[in-house]
Design a protein that fits this description.
This protein is mainly α. The chain contains 19 helices and 2 strands. It has a two-stranded antiparallel sheet with strand order 1-2. The protein is globular.
């Protein structure tokens, strides 16, 4: 019997693109498609057709129809996971704490670091704005008006942190109330003995299932990112950006400096960890945040990044990351600093050194005091402007470009959340250094085999 030997060279198995690359491709493709749609069509519909007697434009069908529906479903699917993820993870983390005083240390360190980085952010923004003068010589007239909503007092925010109805808090997505209830529930489980241990195992299983669901949605992210970018760039007015180009570029510059200079310096100084590992491993979460413009919607991905890629133990990540998504507003603080100086220059108002110090103080405290309030960025800016007697209607001048800037500052915010989580975890000996230094950590967990749904998928 003869045996044939195949001497032909074996073709190498093609390597699939990683999740980061696929998300980036989806984002770039969406930007290109959206810009082309705006250039080729307008919302009156140059190319239209009739369906069941209805006159439908191609632009409306794509942008307001397909892109809007798919994008909204993608955002909703992410938000769907936020409440169960935060509650289950925080209960697991709290119930595993053998030292109750550790919870107080985690909270104190996290809040102090978030306030510190926010103060740095707005100080940096005000300094850059005073040097570059983005509003000098401009005579902008806004066709829209902005009516400032009244922000709650700090005392009222503290009172509102205690949930009167935990189920209602979960239904409304009130993150501070959810955190308080989950912490109390976890402490009670830890003090209950055998019953608490049995319930802890149930919550740990729930946590594993929820994290797998996060992984599934992450694999669908390139398509969601594509439609979100396509819709945004098909509708955004580039003429508005052109008129505010100096302000727009200055905010972007300050955001990049804070993310790539301030954060690495703070991380290296306080923990000794390599900043390059943090920046490299934040790519997926930052792209998610950029696409969704929502720290809350990105929270499942941020949590997965902190635990699986950065090595932060669940007992720390489950507390610091959700807290950061609620009160950490470094990107928003940068926008406020530049916007305040910009509006003052446009209206010809000279602010004193004391005024600028008041801007820094007000914006820093407001980042905690207005946590969880809808439209928090503009509410905080209105508070800052009122504090230094600037016209609040000046906010209307920058609303046109705020959507694009919001995307970038959300990416900065989630990076800050993970940086603080790493510093706190390192100080509490709750950071897996090997995972943090491993460039491939967490990558295998991102893959989902939709063809073979077994325990190893």
């Amino acid at each position: 019997m003869t045996t044939s030997i195949n001497l032909s060279p074996q073709k190498p198995t093609p390597q699939k693109l990683g999740l980061t690359a696929r998300i980036f491709i989806g984002m770039i493709a969406g930007i290109i498609i959206g810009a082309l749609l705006q250039w080729l069509f307008d919302d009156s519909g140059d190319f239209s057709f009739s369906v069941f007697g209805l006159h439908v434009s191609t632009y409306t069908l794509l942008v307001e129809g397909i892109f809007n529906v798919v994008g909204s479903i993608f955002i909703a699917s992410l938000k769907m996971l936020v409440v169960p993820l935060v509650f289950v993870s925080l209960v697991c983390g709290t119930s595993s704490l053998s030292d109750p005083s550790k919870l107080g240390r985690l909270g104190g360190k996290s809040i102090l670091l978030y306030i510190f980085t926010t103060a740095l952010a707005i100080s940096l923004a005000v300094t850059f704005a005073l040097l570059i003068k983005p509003g000098e010589g401009l005579n902008l007239v806004s066709e829209s008006n902005y009516i400032a909503k009244e922000a709650p007092s700090l005392g009222q925010v503290i009172i509102n942190m205690m949930p009167t109805n935990p189920i209602n808090a979960m239904a409304e997505g009130n993150m501070l109330q959810i955190i308080v209830f989950a912490v109390l529930f976890g402490i009670s489980m830890a003090m209950t003995g055998d019953a608490g241990k049995r319930l802890t195992s149930v919550f740990e299983d729930l946590s594993a299932v929820i994290m797998k669901l996060v992984t599934i949605l992450m694999n669908l992210a390139p398509y969601g990112v594509f439609v979100l970018m396509a819709k945004l760039f098909a509708t955004i007015g580039f003429d508005t950006i052109a008129s505010l180009l100096k302000y727009f570029l200055l905010v972007l510059f300050a955001l990049f400096v804070h993310a790539f200079v301030t954060y690495p310096i703070v991380l290296k100084t306080l923990s000794g960890l390599s900043p390059l590992n943090l920046i490299r491993k934040m790519r997926d979460a930052a792209l998610f945040a950029f696409s969704t413009s929502s720290s809350s919607a990105t929270l499942p991905v941020t949590m997965e990044t902190a635990i699986s890629k950065l090595g932060v133990k669940r007992s720390v990540a489950s507390f610091t990351v959700p807290l950061g998504s609620t009160i950490n507003m470094d990107g928003t603080a940068i926008m406020q600093g530049v916007a305040t100086v910009f509006i003052a220059q446009v209206y010809g108002v000279d602010l004193s050194l004391g005024d600028y110090m008041m801007v820094i103080l007000t914006a820093t405290l407001a980042s905690v005091g207005t946590a969880g309030v809808p439209g928090v960025g503009l509410i905080m800016l209105a508070m800052v402007l009122q504090q230094v007697n600037l016209p609040v209607e000046g906010i209307a001048l920058i609303i046109g470009v705020d959507r694009l800037l919001d995307m970038t500052r959300t990416a900065v915010n989630v990076t800050g959340d993970c940086m603080v989580a790493c510093i706190v975890a390192k100080s509490e000996s709750e950071l897996d250094i090997e995972v943090y230094n491993d460039p491939d950590a967490g990558i295998s967990a991102e893959k989902v085999d939709f063809k073979h749904l077994d325990n190893n998928s």
